[in-house]
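My hope is that you will study the protein record below before we discuss the fold together.
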Amino acid sequence: MEKSCQVIEILFWIGIGIVFYTYLGYGIVLYLMVKIKELFVKPRLPRLPETLPEATLLIAAYNEEAIVASKMVNCRQLDYPADKLRLVWITDGSNDNTNERLKEYPEVTVLYQPRRQGKTAALNRALPYVCLLYTSPSPRDRTIRTSLFEQMPPDTLLDDFILSLRIAMRGYKIAYSKEAYALESASLNMREEEKRKVRISAGGLQSVWRLRGLLNIFRYGILSFQYISHRVLRWTLTPIILFALLPLNLLLACTGHTLYTVILALQLAFYLLGYLGYKMEKRNIRNKLLFIPYYFLFMNINVIRGYSYLAKHKGTGAWEKAKRGAG
């Protein structure tokens, strides 16, 4: 009996360590790494070429008639020479007025086919047209950027994530700009947010398998460390461990140890706050104190639900869009 308790105790503390590291520890480690780097490495601003190359903004859209106008306003605000920026919309499967709306913009090239196969399939189909139409006149520049794209299976759910990391695995760096930002409207409600979270979680699980080579930290070093710490743990082990801590804690508390009784009380209080946050959200009442534990639990539950989503939607990259609130 004593040996079993010791095993449970070890598993419990390992679990707490993993959960803490995933949600707080890695952020602390990353912050310290950045500060240390800033002490020894002076930042260098990238030099822009004297002549900017032609660039293509490729937009995959399905039934987006409601946002065509606002998206085109955004495109026209981009700080890039208009004569060198090509706008290509690929609208496969759209059966609303998206294509009709796009006819109002002569600078836009529209690629369309009636069959909807999902975003990744649309990008795979569009890239040959983009390469053919809008490459740099210089043979040397023609391979920049476009050559880094590689086609992915059409059922890929997180195409941008997988593509970016595959490029990084080939030795290229993903640049970060503090000045760059994007605005996105929140989901219309928690039901819509749930659809989004489950799909992203399923895509994360799919990504872990398709990027399994990146788990080799001896080959990819710091990139593997960042990937495992920031993504793999959140999408695989940590949510399961998080919910396993409660029964493990309950078993340990039965031994009468005060520490485990206190931790159990804190866990139960957290779950109670999450439940109260859920009940208030159902009544369209949001309280920050209650919403934070509720959303944290909501997020991890949907990661686990991602397993069933991935099995159910195997072989297809199309998904139901989450409705957004007002921007």
